[in-house]
Amino acid sequence: MGVIKDILRTMDYGPSPESTEHVGVWLEEHKSGFGHFINGAFTKPGDLFDVFNPARGERIARVSQGSAKDIDAAVAAARKAQPKWAALSGFERSKHIYALARHVQKRERFLSVLETIDNGKPIRESRDIDIPLVARHFYHHAGWASLIESELPGTKPVGVCGQIIPWNFPLLMLAWKIAPALAAGNTIVLKPAEFTPLTALAFAAICVETGLPPGVVNIVTGDGATGAALVAHAGVDKIAFTGSTEVGRAIRKATAGTGKKLSLELGGKSPFIVFEDADLDSAVEGVVDAIWFNQGQVCCAGSRLLVAEGAADALYAKLRARMANLTIGDPLDKSTDVGAIVAPVQLERIRRLMRQGEEEGLEFFRANDSLPDRGCFYPPTLVTGVDPASVLAREEIFGPVLVATTFRTPDEAVALANNTRYGLAASVWTENVNRALEVAARIKAGVVWINSTNMFDAAAGFGGYRESGFGREGGREGLSEYRIADEPKGKPNSSRPLRLNASPGVGPARNVVDEGPDRTAKLYVGGKQARPDSGYSYAVLDPAGREVGLAGLGNRKDIRNAVEAAAKASSWGAATAHNRAQVLYYVAENLAARADEFTRRLSAMTGASARAAKAEVDASIRRAFVYAGYADKFDGAVHATRSRFVTLAMNEPWGVMGILCPDEAPLLAFVSLVMPAIAMGNCVVAVPSASYPLSATDFYSVLDTSDVPAGVVNIVTGEANVLAKTLAEHDGVDAVWYVGDIEGAAQVEALSAGNLKATWTSAATTDWAKAEGREFLRRATQVKNIWTPYGE
Ligand code: NAI
Ligand code: MG
Questions:
Q1: Ligand 1: residue whose CA is nearest its atom 24
Q2: How far is the CA of 224 from the centre of ligand 1 (A)?
Q3: Which atom belonging to ligand 1 lies closest to the Cα atom of 396?
Q4: Contact indicator for 116, 332 with CB cutoff of 8 Å
Q5: E strand or H helix at 619
Q6: Which of 247, 249, 270 most suits a substitution to test ligand 1, by most atoms within 8 Å of the C-beta?
Q7: Which residues are CB-neighbours of 373 under 8 A, at least 6 positions away?
Q8: CA distance 725 to 711
Q9: From CA 198, how far away is CA 23, in angstroms rounded?
Q10: So what's the pLDDT on residue 496?
């Protein structure tokens, strides 16, 4: 420690380490290794692996590598505990979750120190951000437990949830997963990340202390293999995952066709946009929080700085000066700003990407290259003049590296911001409120912070667009991930191959080359009737095998054309909800005007009695009216988050949706699926019932006469699972709804992994008379949370 005179001159902080005494005692007690937490007790330590403090490169504990057998035991315990846990009153569950919150709060100091030792993050962050947010999350969800029956009527718990979390916010990610699952009546098997399992084990001890019933929360430690065993386990009803996009994709494929519910919170490359009129000093502090918080190991890190050309030099100069004031070093020191990278492999990953950047000739700025002589450290780095095509502008670095690019116009800023396969978050800096909100609306991301960054709260949803995953965590949005519809399951739909050659007496080949004006229903693409690319039609047969008409045999080319037409019609999503409502009313009216014709068509195709057919048409008309009514009423929310923020939760359309309709109720199912999708502003490529497509193809003339803009609804007939394949694979499709057979549902889910589009599949019979309501609208939208500050 220097002389007071010297200290006053340099104004440096002296060392101020946090005490590790209690954590040290606890680790010493478990020196022989930690077991798993299964059915309310710790198992004997099994195959052990080392856990490190990355700031010192020292082993601090040994934990068990979970095997498939351990996962089995944990799932069995969770399964056994689930009905009793769900049967507790909301009030009882509430008290349990409240107790967890209280105990976390009581142990804030212990948990902060343990988190910092295990992860390498500065104690200031674990103490002031991570652990308080953990407590906040449990408190918030304690409330939900007693409200869930009344707030989410018609739903029930999913069952047993498998939860896999990463190492960047170990206990906070645990809270984000466990709190809503418990509130919603589920039981849990959670696997923490292999680099940072210790706070999860400390949390297990808290579950014992608070008297949480055995089996409600189970924690199995281990690496990716343990995670994969959890994903594959047949006794798990839902998987919630946070981590890399690569593993997210693997999980999407592994769960395809299993009926497991899935939510994925994946990577990002989030833009941090600074306009010329921004308050640059605040923006600089924003950058520090965006990319140097947690050493940049943040899925929503503002890692791409996009700055208006006119402000760039001034901002860079301020940033460089600020970087010189960042203190890098011992994470346990209360004055440390930048701590350690979580593990040597992550450090090597950052270095590898930076070498690639160097090969591209990029220039790096580092204010301070003197790093601690041991441990995993990487200095805060600014890279300017980065081409959007550069590897550093595209890849998630997950380190303290900011890459900067300039823009000239707001349009260019939005284009650059959206020029990524991710869509997790964005930060927008300008003093112009109109511009801020306009840009926020145009950015494709699940969270947008205006003049702020990295704001989190349990009451607001968090989650991504595009390849950043799907599903939300936090608030009401997150809760519905842990509930399912409380209704009897239908019988499995059996596969029904197209009866292409079944017409008697006409010879085997009923796939006929389409030869001009005839009874063949055309496809409907971009507001025009179109011949199928194949040139083929197929015979539509009634139940007695008589031909009632011909339908076009669509192929992948037709689907691609339809997707293109749908993408071009995207201004539909920007139309006012009132306008969309008017158009939908018009559709309903025009359908009503032609009710007799549709009734006859249905009867002829399906063999339904005139009465039954009329009932289906009437129900379809009513349904179209309902969604016309909903168009301007399924609105968003203002979340009660932090003071001096308005957090707007906006329901936004996916964009382009693929919709595959079942054979059941061929008109009503088509209307029930297409109407909510377009009511919310999506443009759709609809594949009607393959066996009974004609009431849907007749529908084009209703669309034509109802002012539905060209491309908003496109209709392609043909073999459902063939067309579903192209839709599920297509990167221009943002979501797919599939109702059909189990093979088809599995195919859609597996192929959706490409761009991680959202899917909603059913392979069971549905009571289409009842298939209506908010769930359809919820599934037709994704929520964007916009954080808007107020006050000077
Ligand atoms: P990761 O995705 O492999 O790890 C996340 C979790 O998934 C860990 O618990 C891990 O054990 C588990 N896991 C790994 N393979 C699995 C599998 N096949 N099945 C089930 N679970 C599996 O991420 P990793 O390798 O630690 O980090 C690599 C990169 O991923 C980072 O550099 C960063 O870009 C990104 N990442 C993103 C995170 C986010 O918050 N979105 C968090 C962690 C990493
Ligand atoms: Mg560690």
A1: 244
A2: 8
A3: 34
A4: yes
A5: helix 610-630
A6: 247
A7: none
A8: 21
A9: 11
A10: 65
Q: What is the pTM of this model?
A: 0.96
Is the CB of residue 463 less than 8 Å from the CB of residue 446? Answer: yes
- Give the integer Cα–Cα distance in Å for 491 and 489: 7
Please check whether residue 141 is in contact with residue 475, taking contact to mean a CB–CB distance below 8 angstroms.
Answer: no
Residues whose CB is less than 8 angstroms from the CB of residue 613 and which lie 6 or more positions away in sequence, other chains included: 599, 600, 602, 603, 606
Describe the crossing of helices 666-679 and 694-704 by its angle, rounded to 10 degrees: 40
SS3 603: helix
- Residue 247, ligand 1, Cβ within 6 A: yes
- List the one residue out of 250, 735, 741 whose CA is nearest residue 498: 741
Question: Could you confirm whether 265 is annotated as catalytic?
Answer: yes
Q: Is the CB of 267 under 6 A from ligand 1?
A: yes
Q: What's residue 501's pLDDT?
A: 38
pLDDT digits (tens, 9 = 90+) for 696-750: 999 999 999 999 999 999 999 999 999 999 999 999 999 999 999 999 999 999 9
Predicted local confidence at residue 261, as pLDDT:
98
Q: Which atom of ligand 1 is nearest to the CA of 193?
A: 9
Q: Which residues contact 91 (CB under 8 A, 6 or more apart)?
A: 145, 146
Cα–Cα dist 627/634, whole Å: 10
* Model confidence pLDDT, tens digit, residues 571-606: 999 999 999 999 999 999 999 999 999 999 999 999
Structure tokens at 529: 């009737």
**Which residue's CA is the closest to the ligand 1 atom numbered 25?**
244
Which protein residue has the closest C-alpha to ligand 1 atom 13?
A: 224
- CA 603 – CA 614 distance, rounded (Å): 9
Beta strands in 344-400 (DSSP E): 363-365, 381-384
Cβ(231) – ligand 1 distance below 6 Å: yes
SS3 450: strand
Evaluate: CB of 410 within 6 angstroms of ligand 1.
no
Which residues on neighbouring strands pair with residue 337, listed in sequence order? none
Q: Look up 299 and say whether it is catalytic.
A: yes
Q: What is the DSSP string of 760-790?
A: EEE-B---TTT--SHHHHHHTEEEEEEEEE-
Give the active site residue among 161, 207, 299, 376: 299
- Rounded to 5°, the CA angle 769-773-777 comes to 130
Q: Is 224 in the pocket of ligand 1 (CB under 6 A)?
A: yes
Residue whose CA is at the smallest distance from ligand 1 atom 35: 244
Place of tokens 């520090």: 288
Indicate whether 768 pLDDT > 80. yes
> Each residue of 668-702: b (16+ CB within 10 Å) or e?
bbbbbbbbbbbbbbbbbbbbbbbbbbbbbbbbbeb
Give pLDDT tens digits for 694-708. Answer: 999 999 999 999 999
CA–CA dist 222, 71 (Å, integer)? 10
Q: Point out the ligand nearest to the CA of residue 114.
A: 2
User: Which of 244, 263, 345, 395 has the most ligand 1 atoms within 8 A of CB, as the residue to mutate?
Assistant: 244
Query: Rounded mean pLDDT of 551-577?
Result: 96
Ligand number, closest to the Cα atom of 399: 1
Given the residues 125, 194, 265, 473, select the one marked as catalytic: 265
Q: Are strands 425-429 and 270-274 parallel, antiparallel or unpaired?
A: parallel
**CA atoms of 204 and 402, how far apart (whole Å):** 37
Going from the Cα of 412 to the center of ligand 1, the distance in angstroms, rounded, reads 33
CA of 371 to the centre of ligand 2 (A): 19
pLDDT tens digits, one per residue of 233-261: 999 999 999 999 999 999 999 999 999 99
